Amino acid sequence: MNQTAMPPAIKPETYALIERLIGFDTTSRGSNLGLIEWARDYLKDIGLESRLTYDAAGNKANLFATVEKGNKPGIVLSGHTDVVPVDGQKWSSDPFKASLRGDRIYGRGACDMKSYLAVILAMAPRFAAANLKSPVHFALSYDEEVGCVGARGLLADLARNNIRPAGAVIGEPTSMQPVIAHKGKRSYQCCVSGKEAHSALTPQGVNAIEFAARIISYIRHMAERMQACEPRDYGFDVPFTTLQTGVISGGTAGNIVPRECVFQFEFRYLPGADPDALEREIKDYAERVILPEMHRTDPGTGISFETRAEIPGLNTTEEEELTRLAQALSRNKSASKVAYATEGGLFQQAGIPAIICGPGSIEQAHKPDEYVTLEQVALCESFMERLLEQMCAG
Length: 394
Known about the structure:
The chain is an alpha+beta fold and about 400 residues long. The chain is about 35% helix and about 25% strand. The chain has nine helices and 18 strands. It has a six-stranded mixed β-sheet, sandwiched between helices. Helix 1 (about 10-20) packs across helix 3. The protein starts with 11 loop residues before the first helix and ends with a helix.
């Protein structure tokens, strides 16, 4: 008779930290200072001082702490503290209270990515006590979910202070499989300013919605062209550059020619693709084709573009030392690629090789009843145990 497999055990301190971290509501629209200041105090209790870098308003902060041992460049264990909203989602339990049901831990951020943060913080006392041959750094950032905002300030601070790690492990959920590349992302907001008129006098107005729709349609044609013609990279589940419009608003009433229409669009581009060329093409179409038609009715109309987020792609090779290290630590010889963006591209752009490897599946991220399995947390603990051994021997 087959017996039901018992879920793998995880360290009590890891589970306690998962509970603690999920308990902080760090939705991107709010502050993460409660979590950051708690983590700073936790690390201080084991003898580690933290560098905090704040946003302009002082409401959010990154944390960077180091176990300063050895004389070689060390490894950064990096993750973001913010989570996506729970608004409108139907949860079976309080999203900001960890709930263990069977072999799953439920809660906002359980997968993306507070379980990873809990594992590295649980390991921090052991790294601090060990005879390391090179440093271990802990990096906790803010506002990754809205464009990897915090990581930029953190990396700028490292550069100013000549802190040059040998590599970074980004703990986004990958089911503990090493990921060596992700697409880059650019997102924009376009505002089309037309001219209001009574709908009975439509020719006297400039319909902002209709002209915005033409730009959106052009973006769609570009997306179809990329899907049909761009050279493929089959390492990605979507092996070509994508473009899409995600949000649109405009108009005030059905019998008024709308004065304004605002929409948001994005591209997610393959490593090696040219996002500047895509941006130029869209702006050129708007300025060369659409704007002159609007100006024939009213020269005071216009079109403006605003860049909302810009995240470079990650493209680590399979031959790099960091890739081989992650494969050895995860006991997995594969190296995959993902479509979602992370701060890994920013680390690489700053001259720090990066790889993505963390517990949980991206399929569970951002959803109601988000969860991580105990098995995934245990695999992450094993990864960090092996890293500790490697850094003491290396």
